[in-house]
Design brief:
The protein is mostly helical. Helix content is 78%, strand content 0%. It is globular, with a radius of gyration of 23 Å. 29% of the residues are buried.
């Protein structure tokens, strides 16, 4: 017997989410103030939330905050924008052409497992400035998720739809724009969101080594100066920027894909 799906009111869901964050902060406060030692994990040197809030307020009053954030945002969106253009084009080519797949997919699969840290020395040798090398690192981080998800979406388009469009006289460009792209769009948007997250991860790694401004550089500098509260402030800023970027992408994806039915929130 079918049962009706019970959905929580939006207010209750947001209350639960807020309480979960408060619970995590409370546990953090207790572990830090009591210098909890859990065997393999110790909170002896971890600052409590109160100290982190004080450091955050100090950073908010500092003129360096804008320089750090704008530097990181520029590097991420420059590298990510290039990865979107190149990644989607490569994904469509590989997904639609067996020849392109045989030619392009093997080197991409060979390079994909290489971590961002391993690319940093080579990028310094390849590019004349550290700024370009950091942008390249963010580009590499975002490229592979975008390519692979685009390939997956394009290769799994229902062939009956393509055949039907072709039988009605549609050309290749019309098929790509009106059949392949709408059907592959959910997978592409997923790749874009994953690519944004990996782009931030790679940027922080690059800024720790080659940067002079940026959130990653700020976090690494705080560690070298033993300003432990500033380390957590930098981590939280990175998390907020990454979460906001991914939210913008998924929201834009939902607006651009009205045919995709939303999942029922439980």
């Amino acid at each position: 017997m079918a049962t009706a799906i019970q959905t929580r009111p939006a207010g209750v869901r947001w209350l639960v989410r807020g309480l979960s964050i408060l619970a995590c902060i409370a546990l953090w406060q207790v572990a830090s103030t009591t210098h909890a030692n859990l065997g393999i994990v110790t909170f002896r040197n971890v600052p409590p939330p109160v100290e982190v809030v004080q450091s955050a307020l100090t950073l908010l009053r500092s003129p360096k905050l804008a320089a750090h954030i704008t530097s990181s945002l520029w590097r991420v969106f420059a590298g990510y924008g290039a990865a979107v253009v190149i990644g989607v084009i490569l994904g469509f080519a590989i997904g639609r052409s067996r020849a392109a797949s045989d030619l392009l997919l093997p080197p991409l699969e060979l390079l994909r497992p290489i971590p961002a840290v391993a690319w940093i020395p080579l990028s310094i040798l390849m590019f004349p400035s550290s700024e370009l090398s950091m942008i390249y690192i963010t580009f590499i981080g975002a490229l592979f998720p975008i390519v692979l998800n685009t390939v997956h979406g394009v290769a799994n388009v229902d062939r009956r739809l393509v055949a039907s469009a072709r039988s009605l006289g549609a050309g290749e460009l019309a098929i790509l724009a009106e059949v392949v792209l709408p059907d592959a769009a959910p997978s592409i948007v997923t790749g874009l969101a994953i690519g944004m997250g990996t782009s931030w991860f790679c940027l922080v790694t690059a800024e720790m080594i080659s940067g002079q401004f940026g959130i990653g550089y700020y976090t690494w500098e705080a560690y070298t100066l033993q300003n432990y509260a500033d380390i957590i402030v930098g981590m939280l800023i990175i998390g907020l920027l990454g979460m906001g970027s991914s939210w913008l992408l998924t929201t834009a994806g939902r607006l651009l894909m009205p045919w995709r039915s939303p999942k029922v929130a439980r």
